[in-house]
Each structure stands twice: as C-alpha cells, then as structure tokens.
Amino acid sequence: MRAIHTLYDHIVVGAGSAGCALTRRLVDAGRTVLLIEVGDRDDNPAIHDPGRLWELWNSPQDHAYTTEPQRHASGTQVFWPRGKVLGGSSALNGMIYVRGHRADYDNWAYQGAAGWSYDEVLPYFKRSEDFEDGASYYHGVGGPLPVSRNHSPNPVTAAFVEACQDYGIPYNDDCNGQDQLGVNLIHRTIRDGRRVSAWTAFVQPVLDSALLTVTTGAAVTRVLVDGGRARGVELLHEGRTTEIRCEGDVILSGGTIGSAQLLLLSGLGPADELRTLGIGVTADLPGVGANLHDHTLAPVVWESARPVPQGTANKLEAHYFAKSEPTLSVPDLQPLMSHVPVPVPDVNVPEEGHGFSVLAGTIRPLSRGRMWLRSADPTQAPALDPAYFSEPSDLAAMVRAVQQVREIGEEKSLGDWRAREVAPGPYVRTDAEVAAYIKRTLLSYHHQVGTCRMGIDRMAVVDPHLRVHGVAGLRVADASVMPSVTSGNTHAPAVMIGERCADLILGAQL
Ligand SMILES: Cc1cc2nc3c(=O)[nH]c(=O)nc-3n(C[C@H](O)[C@H](O)[C@H](O)COP(=O)(O)OP(=O)(O)OC[C@H]3O[C@@H](n4cnc5c(N)ncnc54)[C@H](O)[C@@H]3O)c2cc1C
Predict the structure, then answer these.
(1) Separation of CA 423 and ligand 1 centre (Å)
(2) pLDDT at position 5
(3) Quick one: pLDDT at residue 314?
(4) Buried residues in 259-269 as b, exposed as e (16+ CB within 10 A)
(5) What is the dihedral of CA 114, 120, 124, 126, to 10 degrees?
(6) Measured from the CB, is residue 36 less than 6 Å from ligand 1?
(7) From the CB of 197, is ligand 1 less than 6 Å away?
(8) Kind and range of the H or E element at 404?
(9) Which of 22, 39, 148, 224 is deepest in the core (most CB within 10 A)?
C-alpha cells in the first residue's frame, strides 16, 4: 500500500461494504482516491473461511460495541460486532445476500429520497452482481460480487426447508427476485468455498492502480471544513496527527456508527449537544445520530435425535420470509436456520453436532433510538441506544416469530432430527413468557442503520445525492443513510449505496 504523499481527487473514509464499492467505481472512472481504514489488513484466516465467522467476534478485527441497557428489554445490553478491517463488516458478516423488498426503496423515495425507488436502484444491484444462475430481469452477471447458491445443504437444513413447507410457507427459489415471501436456501457471497468481502470483490483487484492509495490502521478523527466546504480530513496514524486534503468530495463510509461519530466530532450535529462537549459547531444538524435502528433476533434451539453433520459452508444456510399477521402487505419476519446450537444465556445448549437452532427474527421495526458522543475524544466509543421494543408492536412481532418457529420445529419433516426443544424450552409457553424470554436473550441481527438519514426534512442529514446538508464537498455513503432499514440483510443494500454514490459524484446514471 502506497505512502500518503499527494493531493487526491477524493478521500473515502472506511473500507467497508459501501466504501469499497464506491472506491472501485471512482478508480475505474479515472479518479485518484485515498481510501482510509482504521482497521488492519484482512490477514486473519478466519475471515476467509465461511465456517469460522463467529471466531471473528471480539477479535482485533471487530470494533465490538455494546449497547446501552435496553429499557424495553429488561435492561439487556446487546453485543454489536462491527468490522474493523479491510472489508469492514462484510469481512465479519454471515455472507447472506438479500436486497430487501421492493416496498423498502419505494418508501424511501416516497419519504423524499428521489432517485432511490426500487426501479431506480435495481440496475445498481445488478451492476455489482455476478449471479451463478446467469443474467435475468432481476440479476446481473460479470459484476465484482459473486452471488452463489448452496448445492449441498446440511441435511438438517434441508429438513427445515421441508418443515416450513409442511407448515404452509411456500418454497421461493429467489427471494431477490419478483417476490420475497417464502423459504429458501440462502444466496451467498461465497466463491470456491471462500468468503468474498467487499474488499476482495471490489478493491483488491485494482490495488495495483496508480490512482489508488489505501492506508490501514489510520483513524480519521475530523473532517476539515473551511469556508463551508470540506477540504480534507485529519488523520491519526501511528500516534501522529496529519492533515490530508483533496480536490473533490470527501466521502464518509465509516458505517452507521463510524460516520455519525465522525460528523459529530467535526462539529456537524445537534448544536446544543456539541457545545456541551466543547466541540465547535460547524453546522447545526439535529438528525445526526438520531433514527438509529436495527433488526432483532431470539434463539430457538433443539437437541437433535441424531448427530448433525458439520456442514460445508457458512453456518447459516436457510431462511424464510413471512408475515406475523396475514393482513400485512409485506413480510416482517426473516427467521434464520443454523445447523449448530447457538449459545443461550442460562441454558445448557447441546454441543455442536448434537443440536440445531433457528434464530427468530423480525425485519420491519418501528422502534427508533439514537447514538451520541460520550466525549470529544475520538478514541472513545459513542453511546448506542437502538431503543429496541420502544414500539410495542416490534415485541409482538418477535413473539409471533418465536412461536411460529417453534411450531415449525414440531412439523413432520423435522421428526427424524428433533429430540426436544431446549430453548425457550417447555416452561416458556404463553406469549407473556415468550416476551420475557426474548427480552432476556435478545440478539442483534447486526443491521444497524439510519444515523445519517437521507431525506429533505429538518432531521435529514444528507440529501438524496448523499450530500451532507449545510456543508459542500462532503457526502456520506453507507448503511447510515438508510431512512428505514431494508427488509432483510444489509450488506447488498450498502454495496448498492456505494455504487450509486459513485454515479452521483461522476454525474452518471444507469
Ligand atoms: C456479525 C455480522 C453479521 C452480519 N451478517 C450479514 C449477512 O449475512 N448479510 C448481510 O447482508 N449483512 C450482514 N451484516 C450487515 C452488513 O455486513 C452491514 O450492514 C454492512 O457491511 C454495512 O456496510 P457499511 O459500508 O455501512 O459499513 P461497514 O462495512 O461496517 O464499514 C465501515 C468501515 O469504516 C471503518 N471506519 C469507521 N470509522 C472510521 C474512521 N473514523 N476512520 C477510518 N475508518 C473508519 C470501519 O472500521 C469499517 O471498516 C452483518 C453484520 C455483522 C457485524
């Protein structure tokens, strides 16, 4: 990786899902780019082996955040792993490729994000993609990001897919196609048995380009704003502070936590809060850090009646999309099957090979929280409060998800595999008991979004061109700009945001 020595067209902060896609497209267009990542290179072999993803939690490649005690979830503090490495969270994630529902994007556009309707973002998903089944109306080929199918699922996963159908959930071969509803084997960002992160897909292939400089182990601590325009960044690298300037836009792709933290440290946020911390106000942007939200999970675990084989890929092989209430217009549940028993607080779960799990999950939360700085020290983690279940309907949907998953676990097709349910277990039966169990065992689905919300209202942080309100030459491109979380996993949407940001900067359009 080249020494930092020159003036660049662009500085991209954060080599995660969006930052890598954006960097690649800018370099392809002939722009000089400095890509700055606070984490290190992706040398840890566990990153590349899809079966070892849980080893990465609390590793040096993990920012390893924890939320504030959750007021509406019995005070539980929820662990939030986040990538701190080339590839960002795409180097730590479950490798599940899901775009979300058409309605997600149409709703963004309806709320003021012109240009982000489903029909307008679909070409960007397709441009990134290299789909194993070939090109179609919904899928692309030849893009940097391989999307593959699982041709040898674990037999207990295959039985789960059958059990969902016994229960009445339709089989859907392609939840990224015309319809999302139904059960299927997951589409994955895996090629030849190895994880493909945004870094390995987008940036590694152009690392030799003279237009690209990548620096690792360097934290951006402030955006330099002069005369109402972003001119560069302040960088903390090997104990030294440096200022680096660029000609064109500075783009923050630090993720939902990193980008909002950086705006606040740069004096872009709620003016009163910034003054209290002794940070000079550059622009009063009350929405920075607000609108923090996430998807939730709760574990259901069974002991198996016979040994469960190890599996050949990642440990998350199937999922289904369903509605917690038949009257809903779109799915709000996405439970996730794992052929290993996941840990549950205060429960003796079976060892690997002797059980299996389904993580009951919801994907259309209405609860909204916020994040804020504890101090002006850039090395101190911000306070994170997603306010899980502050909207009671979110807890009700989770209860329905857990009860539905337990009913599926009792279906005929899982009969040969199921010995007994160990969590929640036989003493947790009523909806009230399940709600208490969910609050106690609550897990994040790791889909935090929304702290630099895109829009046109007073609380919006960026406009539909991803430009920060009130400062020229500064954009945000990552999961933080999502006005509301997409209905599914968020890596593919974050990549799409990076792709679109590049075209917005270049003045191009698909
Ligand atoms: C454990 C886990 C499992 C997940 N599973 C899935 C899944 O299976 N499928 C899916 O679609 N999604 C999944 N997700 C979610 C998905 O990976 C993220 O939503 C997505 O990667 C976010 O992309 P991003 O570009 O917003 O941020 P990130 O990918 O998190 O990138 C941000 C980068 O910026 C860097 N950075 C931050 N601040 C600074 C700074 N000041 N200076 C320099 N660098 C900085 C960070 O270190 C990081 O590398 C998972 C996430 C996690 C954590």
Answers:
(1) 30
(2) 54
(3) 84
(4) bbbbbbbbbbb
(5) 160
(6) yes
(7) no
(8) helix 392-409
(9) 22
What 372-381 contacts at long range (C-beta under 8 Å, 24+ apart), as own/partner pairs, is 372/264, 372/273, 372/289, 373/261, 373/264, 373/265, 373/273, 373/277, 373/279, 375/277, 376/265, 376/277, 376/278, 376/279, 378/219, 378/221, 378/222, 378/236, 378/261, 378/265, 379/219, 381/63, 381/65
pLDDT value at residue 6:
61
Q: Is 220 in the pocket of ligand 1 (CB under 6 A)?
A: yes
User: How many other C-beta atoms are found inside a 10 Å radius of the C-beta of residue 40?
Assistant: 14
Asked whether 190 lines ligand 1 (CB < 6 A), one says no
Task: List CB contacts of 56: < 8 A, sequence separation 6 or more.
Answer: 44, 46, 47, 62, 81, 91, 92
The yes-or-no answer on residue 447 being catalytic is yes
Tokens 């370099």 correspond to 27
> Residue 1: what pLDDT?
45
- Would you say 104 and 487 are in contact if contact means Cβ atoms under 8 Å apart? yes
For residue 349, CA distances in Å to 194, 335, 337, 341 come to: 29, 19, 16, 7
Q: Decide: 94 in ligand 1 pocket, CB within 6 A.
A: yes
Kindly give the number of the ligand 1 atom that is closest to the alpha carbon of 85: 49
Burial of 233 per CB tally in 10 Å (0-12, 13-18, 19+): buried
Provide block-wise average pLDDT over 10 residues at a time, the chain (510 residues).
Answer: 69 98 98 98 96 94 98 98 98 98 98 97 98 98 97 96 98 96 97 96 98 97 96 92 95 98 98 98 97 98 96 89 95 97 96 97 98 96 98 98 98 97 97 98 98 97 97 98 98 98 94
Mutate to test the pocket of ligand 1, among 89, 147, 186, 224 (most ligand atoms within 8 A of CB): 89
- H helices then E strands: how many in the chain? 11, 26
The residue whose C-alpha atom lies closest to atom 3 belonging to ligand 1 is 93
Joined together, the tokens standing for residue 415 give 């009969």
CA–CA gap between residue 462 and residue 469 (Å, rounded) = 5
Sheet arrangement for strand 474-476: 212-215, 33-36, 10-13, 250-252, 474-476
Which of 139, 319, 447, 491 is the catalytic position?
447
- Residue type present at position 246: C
Nearest alpha carbon to residue 380 among 252, 221, 215, 226: 221
Q: 470 CA to middle of ligand 1, Å? A: 26
* Cβ(355)–Cβ(422) below 8 Å: yes
Helix (H) or strand (E) holding 261: helix 255-265
Is the distance from the beta carbon of residue 264 to the nearest atom of ligand 1 less than 6 Å?
no
Show the tokens assigned to 293.
Answer: 């939200």
Ligand 1 centroid distance, CA of 255 (Å): 6
Interface predicted TM-score (ipTM) over 0.90: yes
| Cα–Cα distance for residue pair 464/268, rounded to 1 Å | 18
Distance 478 CA to ligand 1 centre (A): 9
Tokens 């990193």, residue? 258
Do residues 256 and 445 lie in contact, with contact meaning Cβ atoms separated by under 8 Å? Answer: no
